[in-house]
Design goal:
- It is a single chain.
- The protein is of the alpha+beta class.
- Strand 7 and strand 8 form a beta hairpin.
- It starts with 5 loop residues before the first strand and ends with a helix.
- The relative contact order is 0.13.
């Protein structure tokens, strides 16, 4: 057995496709009209209720019980891109977690929660460029030096 993909229910396949292509740079690898699969393994499905055989009212928006997570190398540049998009509904401001990674959370056009975080390699490099040793980074992030070196390489 192998994992195939995650399927998101969307109300308008064209608008949702455009959102994910323009905001995240995702590439379509399969297009079946009302179902699109991106090369990363994320799929969009219009008429999700029909697909899974439940009434439309059983497909809920903004359930806030799952999030789609991306990491971005140029986190600050990505934040600027988001600020120029009026269709983005944010769930708060940028948060810096205890381990140093900065993240932003927002909703897509259909109310799915998305997290975009600073790429972990960039977090480590930011700490090192601020004068921290790898051992200090290890302690602060609660990650072994070996694991940090793997992320850097």
């Amino acid at each position: 057995m192998r994992y195939c993909c995650t399927v998101l229910s969307v109300s308008d396949i064209s608008k949702a496709r455009s959102f994910y292509e323009n905001i995240f740079g995702l590439e379509v690898c399969q297009n079946y009209g009302r179902n699109i699969l991106f090369s990363c393994g994320l799929a969009l499905q219009q008429n999700f209720d029909w697909l899974i055989g439940v009434p439309k009212e059983k497909v809920h928006k903004k359930s806030n019980n799952v999030e789609i997570v991306f990491e971005e190398r140029d986190f600050d540049g990505f934040l600027q891109k988001l600020k120029g998009n009026s269709s983005i509904a944010f769930l708060g401001e940028v948060v810096e977690h205890d381990w140093g990674q900065r993240v932003i959370r927002f909703y897509d056009l259909d109310g799915h929660l998305i997290e975009v975080g600073e790429e972990m390699k960039m977090v480590i490099e930011r700490f090192i460029s601020n004068g921290m040793t790898l051992e200090e980074v290890s302690k602060g992030m609660d990650v072994s030096v070996d694991d940090l070196q793997k992320l850097l390489n």
